[in-house]
Amino acid sequence: MTTINPTSIVQSMGKIKSFSSMTQDFSWLYRGVAEIFPQPTDLDRSADSLEKVLATTDRPLRVKYGIDPTGAEIHLGHSIPMRKLRAFQDAGHTAVLIIGDFTAQIGDPTGKSEVRRQLTQQEVAKNAQNYLDQLRPILDFDTPGRLEVRYNSEWLSALNLEKVLELLSTMTVGQMLAKEGFAERYKKENPIFLHEFLYPLMQGYDSVVVEADVELGGTDQKFNIAVGRDLQRHFGQKPQFGVLLPILIGTDGVQKMSKSLGNYIGLLEHPAQKYQKLQGIPDHLLEQYFELLTDLPLDQLPENPRARQKLLAQEIVRQYHGQEAVKLIEAGDVPEFSVSQVQFPAKLSYLLNVTQLCKSSGEGRRKIQEGGVRLDGDRITDVDTCFGDAKELHGRVLQLGKNKFVRFVP
Predict the structure, then answer these.
(1) Cβ–Cβ under 8 Å, residues 115 and 196
(2) What CA–CA distance (Å, rounded) separates 97 from 215?
């Protein structure tokens, strides 16, 4: 059994003020949501909608979201379901955050054209702690009863073969091959390994164990969430609702936000770097960014696209770093360093020294090895990183740790 982080609040909330007597304004529920399922149909009008359940429940609902700590950093795209989870918390419900320390060792095959590299337990544990640290500005970690943090190795590592066979018996190969990603790989004759078939079942079994009433996920997670509903029925539970959220388009305006594509804004990036990137968001994406990443009224946004970009940058930097950070950035209080002072080619360790971020090039090398150096938000760990020309650095931000940074200018 994995020990739950002591900073997490894992308590039973018990009976609270009747939810039916609370506000019936559910605009917070629908904002930025692509789909809620199931919905009452013409054939079955007696079925409850999620809104009806929220309006009539006499207990906090258990709202599940799972994250597999397959990397060390979270970007703004990852924050979307977390913000919705916080909205449920603020409405009095219990967020159940599943840290997929077991499933991360398999990797979610959704949207993948090939098998994912399996991570070690040590890699997953380190990534999980990094994720939790980054989520503190978003989720309510402090109010009793508002958050449970669970690690799915607690129950998945204890499954015996009998239970695994029971889970497998709830689905057919045909159903699995209907899943997006599997179907494409099968058609292209790319290998699909049997352990990958287990992933949707394990995610679904998480819902059974934590007795989820609602599960959040991206629009690419509908299959996995539906598997959770089927397993809850199998184990005699009331099936959860699924709330699907859009996938955020990245700063390039074309593809989904992704670190591998370089079109992302990381939560760990320096506020000046966030501000700069957000001011460059394409005009056609601005309203989506406001809807998914802020609580500002959409009908009160400025008409001018440049004013919208500035407001977006101000609001998101304020969320993660406070109003003072916004004031410092807009006052031009971002240290600058002229690359005209440097003879190229120049190593990164040398640049850390001449910009006075480090006391020596040797210290710069150590900081790079320790993973404390970023350029435009990207962590650099190669101590031999070298720049051949000053133009490679113009306008870019070099960052050491959380609070030391400098912008390169001609």
Answers:
(1) yes
(2) 10
* Cα–Cα separations (whole angstroms), residue 88 to 11, 27, 280: 17, 12, 31
b or e along 357-386 (b: 16 or more beta carbons within 10 Å of the residue's beta carbon)?
bbeebeebbebbeeebbbbbbbbbeeeeee
Integer CA distances (angstroms), 257 to 91, 245, 379, in order: 29, 14, 17
Quick one: average pLDDT of 324-353?
Answer: 87
Region of 248 on the Ramachandran plot (φ > 0 left; ψ -120 to 50 alpha; else beta): beta
Q: Read off the pLDDT of each residue in 167-188 and give the average, rounded to a whole number.
A: 83
For 12, left (φ over 0), alpha (ψ -120 to 50), or beta? Answer: beta
Classify 19-245 by CATH class.
alpha beta
Third-level CATH fold of 271-409: 3.10.290
Strand partners, 195: none
Helix 161-168 / helix 194-210 crossing angle, nearest 10 deg: 100
pLDDT at 183: 79
Boundaries of every domain in the chain: 19-245, 271-409
pLDDT in tens, 130-173: 899 899 999 999 999 999 999 999 999 999 999 999 999 998 88
The answer to whether residues 5 and 149 touch, using CB atoms and an 8 Å cutoff, is yes
Higher pLDDT, 91 or 46: 91
pTM listed for this prediction: 0.78
Cα 160 to its chain centre, rounded Å, is 31
Distances (CA, A) of 220 to 127, 166, 183, 285, 371: 23, 26, 14, 20, 32
